[in-house]
């Protein structure tokens, strides 16, 4: 997964010209660039911070039930394996096809009209490349890769076609360097899926929380990966959510549930609503402009307006300070 997308090298690639046209380095001084991590490594790092018995594996959420007892509300979570969990709060981080988001009344994500192939290339003897991301863009297709370490490279190809023949068909016009990366792929890592997105107005006008239930990450704002902000935005959610709940507990000098907790979740969604809607819009616009259309007006919009005027502003937008977590000075 990518955490913090700021492309260091962008190559608009036009097969008709037979050459690469190198663009400038878009990573401004003092800003953070691309960070690529193994999803497994991230999950293991997060799991180490919570008690072992608090994690359930292979437990898929089936349904949600809200109940009130003696003036206090709580949630009953029913799992597909028959188990039921009673919770003071439910934060749905259950992905693009979120059961929690559907329960809140958010509309289902829509297909953006593009598909993506992703994979991990393995070079046992080392790939010999600099640790910088590269992208290659042509009409209707966009590809790129980013080294994870000295032996592994994450790569992707986004297109408007439904085919897995990357090296023989979709990527045949891209540079040999990109094809070399793809040909070293570990086949078990390949994924092929449509790029899903939620309409931004669903976040602006929709209900993002009800009582002690809300959503975060892809469950809240599935977006196309053109800005590489999926992982970043989810981490932002965690900080903002933790800050609102933490400040609530600090003010009360105890763990708080019920209406005060519902208020904290509502403040969290209020803070994240416009940020998430803007990321969805910017990501979709970035992908659409760079890939779609070959007419003169689209070329003019892409090469003159987007790359020269809008591109830097959009990527500057991802440099975002979501604040810090509160310092807990009380023992609850």
Automatic annotation (TrEMBL):
Keywords: Monooxygenase, Oxidoreductase. This is FAD-binding domain-containing protein. It comes from the Eukaryota. GO terms for molecular function: FAD binding; monooxygenase activity. InterPro entries: FAD-bd (IPR002938), MOase (IPR044560). Residues 41-280 form the FAD-binding domain. It holds the Pfam family FAD_binding_3.
